[in-house]
Amino acid sequence: MGPASVTESRAPVSPDGRYLLTEAIADEYTSLHRVWDLADPARPRLAFTLPQLWEARYFLPDRKRPVLVAHWWKNGSGTHLFRLWEFTAGRPRHGRDIPITAPDAVTAVSSDGRLFAVGAVGGSRLGLWGVDDVHHPVRRSVIDAPTDLQHRQPWFLDDHTLVTTETHADRRDLRLWDLTDPSDPRKAGVIPGGADGGGAGYLRPQHVLIAESPGETLQLWNVRDRDHPAKGRRLHATSLGYHPVGRGRLATVLRDGTILFWDISDVGHPRRAETLRLDHAVRSMTVTPDGRHIVTGMAVDDRLYSGTEEFRIWATGPDGRWRTPAETSLAGVSDMQVLPGDNSRMAVVGKVDDEKWTFLLGLGSDRIYDDLGLTHPVSVPAAQWRTLFPHLAHRPSCD
Predict the structure, then answer these.
(1) N or C: which end of the chain has fewer CB within 10 A?
(2) What's the pLDDT at 21?
(3) Spatial distance between the Cα atoms of 333 and 104, rounded to a whole number of angstroms
(4) How many Cβ atoms sit within 10 Å of the Cβ of residue 140?
């Protein structure tokens, strides 16, 4: 698919793995945002091109039918529109737009994809919309909460818990909101200093909130009771961040390529499970949708935030442990997204003649070989073959 690259988005792939968002440069000032149908991975089909000035943001999670959130904004207009496109039988349909007047806007979506929060950057209010019926979104309430870009943007822990930031003289807290009744938001508990380190994460099955703290540490909280969060232990040795890897396990990453695995199902007594030492520092880490593989982005030239990156795919055992060595390595690519679904594949972005293209490949090395042999076979001509391999009969590649 190209020339195009996977859209930089929190969810560029639909939950069922069928649709993929890409972005291509149209001219100096505009981009083309497209939706591709991957029902037949060997022959991706262009399903939809967004109208001019509309950009694809992300897919709503956990919907029976894929729903795309798109954003419209025109320089100097002061108005933003958010539109929900529902894909039914491969055809997108949309309903009424969600408007907001502001220089810039932030959004958050509940984990079941049924609540949509939107506010003006630098403002102090969030509009909460019910999007059960994406064709007729309904504003349920307004939440008094800051949306300054200096703070962490609002986000959802689960279906009915929103997290915002509150600033005090000496610290920045995380505020939990109970949205069990979206028409009557209620302030729940607070995580003191939870936003001081800049970032936070959540392990939903274990109800564990992970707050980054100064000094390259992580503070663990049990938020099963959102009115009374329980403070747990602090984890050290997290110089390059952390990544949930499933089954109540957390991986913390060091600059020398070391990965420490922790069992944090009990926040009061986190246990270091194992240590893995790699040859390069890890930039990113993603669990595949089926939970059977881990994908890491490696800084192969030791420049952590720029330079060459290599993606590796690791198989995991029933207990979540990584199996070494890596099953597959891909160098010279700028991005990779693992697609949901039982038959996991990946969308890989690489350059062809200085233009970004997106390729669909299987996760395993055997499947990558089969895919490339099917779609881009490159054979040695018979005359050259006789020179290189005079003792072997000529055969085409991928035969």
Answers:
(1) C
(2) 92
(3) 32
(4) 18
**Coil, helix or strand at residue 371:** helix
Contacts of 369 (CB under 8 A, 6+ apart): 398
Q: With a cut of 50, which residues of the chain have pLDDT below it?
A: none
Looking at residue 162, its amino acid is L
Q: Which amino acid is at 38?
A: L
Note the pLDDT of residue 33: 92
Rounded to whole angstroms, how far apart are CA atoms 94 and 134? 7
- Report H helices in the chain: 365-375, 382-388
Which tokens is 240 given?
């390059």
**From CA 14, how far away is CA 68, in angstroms rounded?**
8
pTM: predicted TM-score of the whole model, two decimal places: 0.86
Alpha-carbon gap, residue 345 to 343, rounded angstroms = 7
User: Which amino acid, residue 304?
Assistant: L
Instruction: Look up residue 308 and give its two tokens.
Output: 């060459």
d(CA 377, CA 396): 8
Q: How long is the chain? A: 399
Question: To 5 degrees, how large is the angle CA 336–CA 284–CA 300?
Answer: 85
Span 340-374, pLDDT tens digits = 766 668 888 887 777 888 888 877 667 766 766 66
Tell me which DSSP letter residue 13 carries. B
Please name the residues in contact with 265: beta carbons below 8 A apart, sequence gap of 6 or more: 206, 208, 248
Query: Which among 247, 241, 323 is positioned nearest to 285, based on CA atoms?
Result: 241
- Inter-CA distances, 129 with 54, 105, 137, Å: 20, 15, 6
CA distance 232 to 81: 41
Query: What is the H or E stretch that residue 326 is in?
Result: strand 322-331
The whole-angstrom separation of Cα 203 and Cα 290 is 17
